[in-house]
Queue: 4 jobs
Job 1
Amino acid sequence: MVGAGVKKGFSYGQSDEFGFKTAINPTSVYDFNATILHLLGLDHEKLTYYHNGLERRLMFVHGEVIKDALA
């Protein structure tokens, strides 16, 4: 992710001493997707689509924008 409002030369989070699990600032794919949608100017909590007679959310109820990664 170069440009688009993301910090330059930036590493986010830290793993444990074995590199097995996330120790500090764990994030998920849902967080990453919510951040990308935020950078595109879309609100991931209100983004819905109509399917089989129901309004469904694209991001379900998961995902938070990673504010520390934004410039």
Job 2
Amino acid sequence: MKYKRKNIVLRIFVIFIMVVLGSFTYVNAYLNKINKVDITKDNEKLGIKVKDNIDKNEEKSSGEEVINIALFGGDRRKINDVVHSDAIMILTIDNLHKKIKLSSIMRDTYVNVYEHGMTKITHAYGYGGPELAIRTLNENFNLNIRDYGFVDFYGFKNLVDALGGIDVEIKKYEIKEMNKYIKELADIKDTRPTLIKKSGMNHLNGEQALSYSRIRKVGDGDFERTDRQRRVMEILFEKMKNIEISKYPSVIDAILPNIETSLSKMDILKLSACVLSWDNENIEQSRFPTDEYYKQRKIDGVYYIVADLNETKKQMHDFIYKDEL
């Protein structure tokens, strides 16, 4: 009898191992579709000043406990265009407070870019790719970013379509600008545009959602655009949490080939497992610089957002590391 029990336990154990290995092989195969890019790990080249945090509390949270990942969205219209970071965000995995945080950085913010002087922060990616863009964020805001993710317009569109679209409240003054971008995307693909006809709640496909995220010249300009981008990110996050298992392959096929990242497959698996284990399911969001600490100025005929960088740095640290704002 004991032998039979041992035999049954052994069989269950073997089946369990096969399932686990099978799942790992499945996930591993899909993660191979991501465009993995190696970047430097050198603190100086990334602009990380380990001992220069604002206070001792941040030193405790500047390593594995609070992980910051730079997220860049590409503004290229065609596949072979030079890439610029049209959207700049910082994804924070806050293990101390068990939260996910998303910080938007205004693309026109006037900052110092290494070896290029004072200019718009959005130019850093075009000048020197992800390493210079990360260095610019770290040096100007005293952060500890070591990795990044980049998604171009095509990857974003494909993800929304794979998820079956998203529901977004469209304001009346956004329609004309949104349709302009929809037509532009349709012209690139030589397809017929599906235009927005009314304000209010609309179910957007990938092309429409991307166009909505690009709206800039109405409302509160780029400030409102960052709000739209974070809103869309939050909606996508919610949809991805609740999709049916049967849709996993199509969603993975749509987004992974369009992602470029410095994170390893093991990094992605570890971070995903960590986040999925938390009870808190909401993304906390903020935008920098905040309204009270910037001025809009023209310098040599070019429009910039000139921020109080010291105060902005402090606010970012309060939000990212101390969970305050």
Job 3
Amino acid sequence: MPASDPTASVASAPPTVPAWAVPHGLVTSDVEAAFLAGSALNSLDNLVRMAPAWAGSWRQRLALKGAAAAAALTGRTESEAQLRDAWYLRAPGADPGPAGNLLAAWKGLAERSPIVSPDRLRRVANLLGLRWSDSLVSLGEQFEVLAGSGQPAPLVAAAIATEAYRLRPDAGLLGWWIADLAIAARMRWPVAVPLLVTQAPGPAFRSLSDRGRDRPGGEGFERAICVALALAATDACRSAGEMAPRAARLNAATRKLRAKGAGEVIQLLLDEDCVSGTLQTKNLTRWGSRRLFERLTALEAVRELSGRASFRLYGL
């Protein structure tokens, strides 16, 4: 059954990363770090290949977390909730602002195939607030070489992030973005999973010498990438485990809905992080949307995510 079918089976529990593969404390050994990354990545790979009907929503939830981490790295203060509002409550076609553009970059990562072109790199650089230079064109060329090199995915990610930093020390965010794309290309996933940037501010990149952070190209960076990937894969699988039962309830509730246009809303809930409670479509009025979300909430098929009495947002 196609993954996009909102009535697709969601009964299978998503894989989890084994407890012994989750980094605890400071990992000092390159061999241990590589082992943890490989084990965690295997669980994530199994999840990606399950292609559940709610995979789009899962990826978009991870994209939101990635964008919030990216905002923090640039000194911005927007939370996940504020980024969500900037994107999902804006007028159609309106500029979401600098913070919203960060979310657009990671949303695009989670929606498209892991292919790099000069045009795509230029668009993403613009969203990240990075001045474009022709030197970045070679980043795409190096991406293709590394993705087809046969090296383990964590090392490919470390190498492309290092190359981005070598070309432009101010291209840190682009390095994190393209590192996730490289992992997807190396793993032959149809769509990338936002992962590494969420760990960038965390303990994975703490230098073993207590002299700051492990930087791209520096000693310990490959080990740090492995630890970060193990932690990120663990979080991603945990997020999937939380979403799967909600998606199952949504699937069950679908059979009880009679509202015209409900199918479009269900598909959006499976594809997006959230949906506006006043969504209007060709087949559904704002009033109809409110009634539909009230019904879905009563059936515990969706959650209201904003905590507000108005301008509400609903998702798995």
Job 4
Amino acid sequence: MATLCFFRFWLGFGIGGDYPLSATIMSEYANKKTRGAFIAAVFAMQGFGIMAGGIVALIVATAFDHKYKVPSYEENAHASLVLPAFDYVWRIILMFGAVPAALTYYWRMKMPETARYTALVAKNAKQAATDMSKVLQVELEVQEVAEDKTPKFGLFTKQFAKRHGMHLLGTTTTWFLLDIAFYSQNLFQKDIFTAIGWIPPAKEMNAIHELYRIARAQTLIAMCSTVPGYWFTVAFIDYMGRFAIQLMGFFFMTVFMFALAIPYDHWTKKENRIGFVVMYSLTFFFANFGPNATTFVVPAEIFPARLRSTCHGISAAAGKAGAIVGAFGFLYAAQSKDPTKTDAGYPTGIGIKNSLIMLGVVNFFGMVFTFLVPEPNGKSLEEMSGENEEDDAEAIEMAGSGTARTVPV
């Protein structure tokens, strides 16, 4: 399990495909009393990955700044941008991401399939016991069970829609809405910090100074709000429950977005900038002590073993779709209404103030759709997915038709 947490540390660099695998593996190995904390801890390692990415950018920017002394854009536009060596900066930073990706791939290939999948879906009790023995480092006896030939419902069936359709709608919509707001905030922090004057205008810096200032601001936000938010979820998720934390997170994200947006002109004044940064940081804190963590946890707990990773992957894919909407939508929407202040090549937008209002509305709808998601706190995976009920119902139906079968343990 420590290896899985190591995966998630590096996944902060952006290997989203491992989301359903990491969550499902941890959910199926953890016990019901502390399952939420274990899954949330896997996800929380992303925070350290985010910080690591910022630190790498700071180190590279500092090294290049000491080696190459160049003027600001305002002093000499040509000299501040076109130094050939600067083209290596983004390449070096990006290249660091290949190392954790390779390590993740290597260790993922070494991990066995989960015992629940092997026993319940692959129908190989012996292999499941062997894999569990390796992971838990204990000797387990193999109990042979009769093969269950009863057909199970698939993802695109009426049975799934009846049992879990609303649950899947809840996990996909909340993750989609959360990522619209979350990735908008992450990807365009520099625009917001520049607008309030926390980062100097681009003309007053050269390319390396701009990279350093932005990386420093984003790393500070991660250190002071993002990472603590993740670990607050780890600490409280099995006490408060997933539903309460997600609802609370969306609520406070909505409140702080509106608190920043409505009096936006007030926050742009120099004496109020610190207050803006503090409140902006709190939106990240409650995103992570809230839906950013719980949308990762819940899909790994509420669906049947044979569909658990698939449904988690669908939910995560909906989230990434939201990230695309947020990234490109905010990119255009946040442009100034004044054509003279719009970035070159972009049409006029609705401005940062109205964009923040829109994100507040998105968070509000995230709070509404949270009511579609069940509370799995303190319940076994089989109890949440209804797999035991499914087997019992099928056994009764077959008994009534005069057909006998053995239900596997």
